[in-house]
Amino acid sequence: MNGATNQYDGDYDADVMSLGDDSVYTLLGSQKLQIDGRKYPLSTEDIIPLGTKYAEDGIYLLSLATKEGIFNHNQSIYIKDKLLNKVIDISQDAYNFQAVKGTDESRFEIVYKSQDVLDVNNSIKNNLIVYKDEKDFVVKSIEILTKVQLFDMSGKLINETSKPSNEIRISHQNLINAAYVVKIYKNDEVVSKKVIK
């Protein structure tokens, strides 16, 4: 909106007064906002971190109630699920996902570009192999990886290795047979891959 910035503006933004059992809010640093006015005109490079709170483990849904202004015409709104490495156009469809009871302030972002546009410069994805051997999930790259995390499909962190290397292993021997997500870091680049035990 005219006059707003992407920082905190008393005339356009509002802090979260209290978190309910189930909540969604935007984040401006450590500040939780229930109204987050953004600078006009919209920059499609804008990224807005979301915080979420869940009353219990289960399936949740993110959707748009109403669309105004440019969002009522030709500008889509996307939810980026950084855990599952998905970008969903919630202008078209609601997003159903599994979550674990508690607060999560790192999984979701609002973005204004599709997955195809976001993936163009992701060099880590092009130089990566992920596979399962008898004991481990193995992540190999021609570049040095800084961290690998293993999550179950509800988003719970199961294991993490932070030894920089071009081959990182995470044991799967004590895990049940199921699908998991391996989140791979190379400095600021992050890629998520689904693996099956």
Explain the overall architecture:
By secondary structure, this protein is mostly beta strands. The model has no long low-confidence stretch (mean pLDDT 87). Helices cover 4% and strands 49% of the residues.
Rg over CA atoms:
19 Å
Main sheet: which strands, in order across?
1-3-2-4-9-6-7
Name the helix and strand elements from N-terminus to C-terminus, one letter apiece. EEEEEEEEEHHEEEEEEE
- Fraction in beta strands: over 45%
Key words describing this protein structure:
single chain, mainly beta, 2 helices, 49% strand, 7-stranded antiparallel β-sheet
Short description:
This protein has about 200 residues and is mainly beta.
Topology:
Blueprint: E1 14-15, E2 23-28, E3 31-35, E4 48-54, E5 58-62, E6 78-81, E7 86-89, E8 95-99, E9 102-111, H1 115-118, H2 123-126, E10 128-132, E11 136-145, E12 147-152, E13 157-161, E14 165-171, E15 179-186, E16 189-196
Antiparallel strand pairs: 1-3, 2-3, 2-4, 4-9, 5-8, 6-7, 6-9, 10-11, 11-14, 12-13, 12-15, 15-16
